[in-house]
Amino acid sequence: MRDIIAGELGGPTVFRDRNALTYEYLPERLPRREEDMAKLSRIYRGLLQGGGAAHVLVMGDVGTGKTALARRFSEDFKAVAKERGVNIEYTHVNCRRRSTEGAALLQILTHFDPRFPDRGFSNTEMLENLRKRLERLEAHLIVILDEVDVLLKKSGSDLVYHLTRFNEEASRARYSVSLVMVSQMDARTLLDEAAQSTFGRTNVLHLEKYEKSDFAQIVPYRVELAFNKGAFPLDAQDAAIDAASAQDVGGARYAVDLLRKAGQNAEDAGRSKVAPEDVRTAAATELLSDEKLEDLDRHKQLTLLAIARVLKKGGAFATTGEAEEAYALACEEFQEKPRAHTQFWTFLKELDSQGLVRTRRSGKGIVGTTTLISLPDTPAHVLEEKLLKLLRRVA
Ligand code: ADP
Ligand code: MG
């Protein structure tokens, strides 16, 4: 059997660094975001000039590079600050996973002390602990609150309020906390009045969707990072640029998924070069990244699960009634209280606008008119499996 394993390992590989196409990977450069990087630098310039904290909201659709930009900026800003003798620390909080003030604070403290106990401290105590650490280190902390709308909706504005108010107590700006809020929506609308006044209204960085000319730079760069020289030829890159710009949702995230999948297709076929057809096959099958599903609220995941289950039975579409019935069952299965009909309807509309389902009004013939729901490109059973995995993981 060892020869089988060895044989498989010895096959041609197109990848130089497969890791460079994972979600955690943070590229050195972000082509087409140079101007946004410059804006962030101007917003935070004060930190290097003895000034105080600054806050910003980074807004944009899925795959516009919000997370990558916030992390890249913090990382590089920290390095530049260090050369100038200023101690910047930063930490990235995924508010979808850490959706309460306590969970987020714990993650921030873990940045300073990986063994910080995960229970036994109140929020007030954790805030005080953080303040003492920053004071001792004379550090300016940048907290990236990613997908912050999830936390704000679930737990209110306390975290933002407490962290931003910190700076009022800091003596002569020797330490501070700055927030980079990241969200697909205008998260300021979710802040209560007190938090709004400490967060400030001014700094918003709106990341526009990438267009073809952007992908024409992003794709070759990501190819260079991840693939062997010549393994992803220009004609295949063009196919990827076309597919990414034709796709309405997913942005650069979609493009990166596509490159990985296309490379995998070539490798599975035992070839050492990616062909345009590998890209097109990838585009036809892998429109749905796991992360896109992960980004949905739990109830939208349940709605989608319900639709997948109805469609798995073989029909071309699900009616709203069928979907809502399956949704109620799915809620029961995952111990959630089903939302009211109007809310369910909103979930459908939002899933539609995100390109995850397609809805249209039925013609005559079906009792009255109803809305018919279908899945644009994913086999229902694949979607069901992915959602079950997610729903079981984050209870
Ligand atoms: P968002 O947080 O807005 O959904 P991400 O920051 O997660 O988007 O970006 C999605 C993927 O695309 C990541 O793999 C990221 O590294 C990559 N990416 C985004 N913008 C660029 C860019 N300008 N150049 C290269 N890669 C990019
Ligand atoms: Mg993100």
Describe the 3D structure.
With 395 residues, the chain is of the alpha/beta class. It has 3 domains: 2-21 and 210-286, Helicase, Ruva Protein, domain 3 (Orthogonal Bundle); 34-207, 3-Layer(aba) Sandwich (Rossmann fold), CATH 3.40.50; 291-394, Arc Repressor Mutant, subunit A (Orthogonal Bundle). Helices cover 53% and strands 10% of the residues. The chain contains 17 helices and 8 strands. The chain has a 5-stranded parallel beta sheet with strand order 2-3-4-1-5, sandwiched between helices. Strands 6-8-7 form a 3-stranded antiparallel beta sheet.
Key features of this structure:
binds magnesium ion; Helicase, Ruva Protein, domain 3; 17 helices; Arc Repressor Mutant, subunit A; Rossmann fold; alpha/beta; three-stranded antiparallel β-sheet
**CATH topology (level 3) name of the largest domain:** Rossmann fold
Ligand inventory reads: adenosine-5'-diphosphate, magnesium ion
CATH class of the largest domain: Alpha Beta
From the spread of the alpha carbons, the general shape counts as globular
**SSE series:** HHEHEHHEHHEHEHHHHHHEHHEEH
Biggest pleated sheet: 5 strands, parallel
Helicity, as a percent range: 40-55%
What's the CATH H-level homologous superfamily of the largest domain? P-loop containing nucleotide triphosphate hydrolases
Strand content: 5-15%
Radius of gyration: 23 Å
Distance between the termini: 40 Å
Strand tally is 8
Spans of 5+ residues with little confidence (pLDDT < 50)? none
Mean pLDDT: 90
Number of domains: 3
Tally of contiguous helical segments: 17
Secondary-structure-derived class: alpha/beta
> What is the topology, as strand order, of the major beta sheet?
2-3-4-1-5
Tell me what the CATH architecture of the largest domain is: 3-Layer(aba) Sandwich
